[in-house]
Amino acid sequence: MRPSVLLALAAAAALALPAVAWGHAGLVRTVPSASRTVNAPPGQVVLSYTEPVVGRFAIVSVTDAEGRQIASEPPSNAPGAPQTLITPLRRAPEGWYLVFWRVVSADGHPVRGAFTFAVGPNPGPPPQFRVPSLSETATSTRLLISRWVVFLSLLAALGLFVLRTVIARPVVRAVRGCSLRPLSVAFGVAIVIALVAIPVYVDLATAQFTLRSAFDLGAIVPAARASGFGRDYLDLELVVALFGIAAFVALFVDRPERAERSVAELLALPAALLTGAAALVLPSLAGHAGQKSPRGLALPLDSVHMGAAAIWLGGLIGLIVFWLSVPAGNRIAALAFVVPRFSAVAFGSVVVLIGTGIGSSFLELPTFSTLWQTSYGKALLVKIALLFAALMLAGVNLARTKPRLQAAGVRPSLGPSAAVLLRRLVQGEIVFVAAALFAAIVLTSLPPPASALARVKNISARVGPGPVSEVVAKGPYRVRVGVSPNRAALPNTFSVAITRGGRPVRGAQVVSRFDMLDMDMGEQSYRVPERKPGVFVKSAPALVMVGHWALQFEVTPPGAKPFVVTLLDKASG
Amino acid sequence: MSVQTRLLLALVAVAAAAVAWIVVIEAIRRTI
């Protein structure tokens, strides 16, 4: 391959994005509204989410300033509204209340949050609530590894099957003494690993999400069946088993030594390939693609992305198995036949992989900058870098090894060194692709960036979690913004120190605005009074929830045009 | 192995594909 083509491929790979990912329920509406005062005691707390949540696994606690529970019953789904949870309350006297919630969303992931509301008419100042720990992650090591094994074995099985039945099959007639049996055995091993790994992964994931032991199967199995995530993966187990059966039949009736396929072969092979394709749809349904609009586009992009990855990864593994199993005397001739055929298919797969990745990126990332500003984006960049490395090795194989193997028929001296180089490069490629798959697994365990991030324009800095002291230059002005302690559901102190040429700017008007980006809560606005020359300070319980906040400070210096400093803050619990 | 046996086995593969897609379509219907 020419360097220009390689460069173009590399550039495209730099934009390639993952497709498989998980969705997460987001809180979109609460009754009573967060941080607002209601005049009569509410009979219940109503929480509405972006997607169905399982009432049986939800925890909703409503406590007063002394930590007394006022929820009278556990939460349950509202009739006919699987996205809504209702928690009945005892009669709540005047005062402030903290609502803490934890739900398991349709994809099986736990999500937590908290907000406050007050019962009036005179609730008094908001107290300092003790917020339970709000950090929870689906990225524990054992979950990541088990998920990686599931995808690695599934993709390897699919790719090995395609290599064995479509790409490498004619080698039996072309090169005497070649056998495809080792490829069939490798496929069998991969599918057995997938069949064992899928239920183990569902067990571990459900155990973590429902806070139970992985050995408590009496509780785990009903829980897995009750969540959308668990049902999709148990369906995947069934479909992979069916793929195993169909593929076994296709391999059993296959007679590669004959020039033309029989009717039985022509029936069994497409049936097995179709069953394999079915297995690619279910992980997409269980992931972000299943929750992402438009699903008609997100789901096919995701499934085709995985299919292309399967043909590439499984084919590479198959090449190594083939290399090792072919008798040394036939090796060069066999490789000279199989490698060009595989290269052509793998090249197409990589193009499709990149195309579908870019397509998914438009659906998954709200802004281009989220690529390097969020953990999701960073995991993605790691994945792209690993794929880039794999592509470089693939490029060397295409440009040097393949032509040498083909020329070995005329110049036998080229053969052995080309074969050894091929094995080393393909082994390296497998390591990089498998590592890129692991990066994709990490990625799909992180929530994608909040779509509300696209709503905020001209962000001066991203801050938090933890206390903030950020200096922003705006024209001739320098503005130091402080937020302390930058924790949700507590009164926070916001300070704005404005200087121009090193001198404090007196008499400015400063208005702060707080906009919750992870759910729709309405904007809060405060005037920030001047406490010292050029220093404006306000203490307010403005950050009522854990999550992403747009903090905007509109500064109007005396006799000058106003300007706005916008910080994107992450408030912790 | 007779032709009939081979055809019967191939039909098993076709049936497996049909069942797999019924499972997938049901899962899609459930999600959307």
Number of β-strand runs of chain A = 19
- Quick one: overall form of chain A? elongated
How many β strands of chain B by DSSP?
0
As a percent range, the share of strand residues of chain B is under 5%
What's the assembly state of these chains?
heterodimer
Secondary-structure-based class of chain A equals: alpha+beta
Rg for CA atoms of chain B: 14 Å
Series of H and E elements of chain B: H
Individual helix count of chain A = 12
Share of residues in strands of chain A? 15-25%
End-to-end separation of chain B in angstroms reads: 46 Å
The stretches of 5 or more residues of chain B where confidence is low (pLDDT under 50) are: none
**Main β-sheet description of chain A:** 6 strands, antiparallel
Total count of helical runs of at least 4 residues of chain B? 1
Would you identify the regions of chain A where 5 or more consecutive residues have pLDDT less than 50? 1-23, 133-137
Q: What is the SS-derived class of chain B? A: mainly alpha
Straight-line distance between termini of chain A: 53 Å
